[in-house]
Amino acid sequence: MAAKKLDAIIFGATGFTGKYTVLEAVSVLKGLSWGIAGRNQEKLQSVLKEMSAKSKTDLSQTPIIIADVNNEASLLEMAQRCRIVVNTAGPYRFFGENVVKACIESGTHHVDVSGEPQYMESIQLKYNDLARERGVYVISACGFDSIPADLGVVFVEKNFDGVVNSVENFVHFGVKGGTKGTGSASLNTGTWESAIHAIANRSESIAIRRKLFPDRLPKFHPELKPRAPLSIANEVGKVILPFPEPDLPVVMRSQRYLYENEKKRPIQMQAYMLYPSRWVAGVVVFLAAVIGILAKFSLGRQLLLKYPSFFSGGMASRDGPSEERMERTFFRMTMKATGWPKSQKLVESSTPLSKTLTVQITGPNPAYGSACVALLSTAKTILNESDKMPSTGGVLPPGAAFSKTSLISELEKHEHGIKYEIVANK
Fold it and tell me: The pTM is what?
């Protein structure tokens, strides 16, 4: 007799992100049937034991599925065991495509926390039509990259009461009470490795985007021009630098989808990281330049991956962040939207911008708390609200996929969830 089909399977559960996804699943997936998957039975059992203790919940009867990214038969068997695969096994550049293929073949939905533009866009290029034919949703960037930003733009537009021309997003990371006693690392090396490969292969995105989007979006007026690096943003009183990928390309993929399929005027966006001083921002620029140069060469990448703590200024380590640091880490996004109070032409408007809306998006532990809650919430939303999602399936960015669902409300329910609120409306 075949085993009963589960609602969800968390794949890659023994990884750093994976095990904290298991922890958050106790509350987020409550009422649903779920299991965990990976290569090693003993390690999977160890994760269940550890997360049982942390959550004060008996997880010993949680189904365990053995699956390996290099064994397509095992991936297919895993995908056939559930309605949706929650994939935490990165870097997705190397390990993601086989899982997506197995899910599409099995008619199983797929979500992941990839922040790798090349992977996301190549998957859309290769598999969007097939996913739609099979009625499967494949949605990446469902963690901190890029649920806060992409759904933030959706939230802005729903509350703007007019037409949004552009959004500027100011991103702040902090540690409550300071970093003393918490350890300096804020990232696990798996996240660091994904970032290094994304930087090294950034040029691939240009070729992929040309194939994926042969027609350019129309130009809009007034154009939102990027602010000067190291300038001070008066809205938040901090020094700014451009926020690194992938938020901007993910948001623009959502805006393109809504423009092409719903004839909605796309929203322009720029995103910035906040720093307390030009000195601190200057050090970040220097480190980023070193990493960018080294990442272009094989030997340089080897050094970056071998010594993550040194090259990241202590931000990444093989052990990942301490429990104390994760509990005290938070993020805050301040989104300022500008536009018009009444409907304008789809492409252009000569009417001066006369309306603003400022929104704040906050959450704890962005890399391994809010991200895991967001990932599981997207899976739950697909299972419960597919009738509110576009088409019959496809490879979609989050904003396009979930714009008409209650995902934002779901995110706000949980202790480590994400909050969206209006702070100014002029």
Answer: 0.94
- Per residue in 25-63, pLDDT (tens digit) is 999 999 999 999 999 999 999 999 999 999 999 999 999
CB burial of 21-32 (b: ≥16 within 10 Å; e: otherwise) equals bbbbbbbbbeeb
DSSP assignment letter at 413 = T
Going by the DSSP 8-state scheme, the letter that residue 84 receives in this structure is E
Residue 299 lies in a domain: yes
In a domain, 306, yes or no: yes
Q: What helix, strand, coil percent values describe the chain, rounded to 5?
A: 45, 20, 30
Q: Does the residue 54 lie in any domain?
A: no
Beta strands in 234-354 (DSSP E): 238-242, 268-275, 316-317, 329-340
* 104 domain residue, yes or no: no
Helices and strands (H, E) in the chain, number of each type: 16, 16
Measure the N-to-C terminal CA separation of the chain; round to a whole number of Å: 62
Q: Say how many domains are in the chain.
A: 1
pLDDT value at 305 more than 90:
no
pLDDT digit string (tens) for 337-375? 999 987 655 445 678 888 999 999 999 999 899 999 999
Containing structural domain, residue 222: 147-425
Nearest to 156 by CA among 362, 417, 336: 336
Q: What is the pLDDT of residue 281?
A: 95
The answer to whether residue 117 scores a pLDDT higher than 60 is: yes
Q: How far apart are CA 29 and CA 52, in angstroms?
A: 15
- Report the alpha-carbon distance of residue 140 to residue 110 in Å, rounded: 8
State the residue for tokens 């039975």.
41
Distance CA 124, CA 407 (A): 22
